[in-house]
Amino acid sequence: MARPRALSTVRAARGADFEAVTALLEALGRVEVTEATLEDARAVFRQQILDPDAHHMVAEDQRGEVVGFCSLHFRTRLNHATEEAWVPDLFVSEAARRQGVGRSLLEEAERRASERGCWHLTLESGHQRAEAHQLYRSLRMRDVGKSFSKLLGRGGRR
Fold first, then answer.
1. Is residue 52 part of a domain?
2. pTM attached to this predicted model
3. What is the DSSP string of 107-122?
C-alpha cells in the first residue's frame, strides 16, 4: 500500500538546525560528530549557511521536525561563463521517504540554480542509494559518470 504524501516545507537552514542536519548526515554515512569535533563542526556549519556561494535547505514535516537536507553549492568551471550548481548532500530521513520530501528539496535546488543563472546542475550520490537514483531519473537527471575518492591525512578531519 502506498504511503500518503506528507506535506513538507522547504526553507533555508539556520544555525539552530545544526543537530538535526548533523544527524541526517551521519545517517547518510558521514563521519560522526563527537565531543572532540563538535565545536569545529558547528563552526563549519555556521560558515556554510552564511556562505553566499552555497544554499543549504531543510525540509520540515507538519510537526516542524527537520526530515530532509539539501546542500547546494555554486562553483565556477573552466570554459563556462556562468556557474555550475552542485548538490553534494541530499538526504531524507527513513521515516519521511517516498513522501515527496526529496523531490521538493531537489526542485527547490533547481529553482535556485536557475534563478542564479547556472548552466548545469550536478548531484553526487553513492552507488548504494538506488532508491534515490530513481528519484533523480524521474526529475530528468542522467547518470553521467563516476566519482573517485581518497581520504587524506586524518580521514578528512581537522
1. yes
2. 0.76
3. HHHHHHHHHHT-SEEE
